Amino acid sequence: KLSIQIISKQVKSILGLAPVCGFQSLAVLSRGVSFSPRQVASDASFHSVSFSESDHPRVLITGGLGQLGVGLAKLLRKQFGKYNVILSDIRKPRAHVYQSGPFIFSDILDYKNLCEIVVNNRILFSNFALLSAVEEANVSLARDVNITEMHNVLDVATEHGLRLFIPSTIGAFGPMSPRNPTPDLCIQRPRTIYGVSKVHAELMGEYYHHRYGLDFRCLRYPGIISADSQPGGGTTDYAVQIFHDAVKTGNFVCNLRPDTRLPMMFIDDCLRVLSMRTYNISAMGFTPEELEQEIRRHLPDLQVAYETDPVRQAIADSWPMVFDDSNARSDWGWKHNYGLPELIQTMLNFTGSNFRMLRAN
């Protein structure tokens, strides 16, 4: 597990309380001046003003019931206190989420509501996104969630002088991008609405920085593997589902070819994490077949069938095989803690424990 000292150092760097660069996964806003590109003349400019170290922040996590929100809330509540970190979503949470700390309903498609929330909270962590395969099935919804909401966040961040961090993804690259390795700066041109919306967010953040002085940062994440959340429809979600199925039934059907190599990262590394404003970061890479073989070292009776889903496979074939994160490693010392052996042991311990508890009940 990551030490609280490391997390504290990274969180404070986003707040402007420490000289260190780098943080984790979600969009971050912290307060400063109070103007908006929706309100001001075209020749205006803005500069963020950070809080003093004695001014304790409150935190709101939007889209908090997604893959990263609950884990991030747990981490930040250790830093800022249980009642200073508020989870929000448009869905009803499970009982344990209510019990763990404050939760509110929030739809950030509602610009006025988002402004009211920001007035009452000094940092906003936004995790607004659908996953790749889900988005291809509903482009209109994907456009609303991943583009319209992002515009709201950009405008509110600029209006209230906040510092903004937006997560991006391997999906921001396309079939014309170099795949092995994929550098920070290269041709992108994705062919999914998921990827198009991520490139749009990267470029709009860069534009708002140069045009309005918005303090914008972005990290491109590989596939994220989490033990305490269910797969949500992403192309890399096979690497989560296989652990659940291996423990429960010993049988798994993979929707990618066995030789499909993609970069991956365990969620604890994701939650840790600027010269440039957009960086690649990665931890490990494997194919479904390699993952199967490693899990079988622990569960030798595991049986895996491959029934390729053409939609997910086409998406995976357009994504990087290897993420070049050498700039992040050299510029601000990024280093992952979980390789494939550590990932497998952690995931099997967690899913096995949960399955035994469910069976006992």
Query: Beta-strand level of the residues, as a percent range?
Result: 15-25%
* H and E string: HEEHEHEHEHHEHEEHEEHEEHEHHH
- Poorly predicted regions: 1-36, 39-54
Can you give the mean pLDDT? 78
Task: Report the total helices.
Answer: 13
Report strand order across the widest sheet: 1-5-2-3-4
Largest sheet, in brief, is:
5 strands, mixed
- Reading off the top of the CATH hierarchy, the class is best stated as Alpha Beta
Assembly classification: single chain
CATH superfamily heading: NAD(P)-binding Rossmann-like Domain
Tell me the total number of β-strands. Answer: 13
Distance between the termini: 28 Å
Any idea what the CATH architecture is?
3-Layer(aba) Sandwich
Residues in helices, as a percent range: 40-55%
Number of domains: 1
Gross geometry: globular
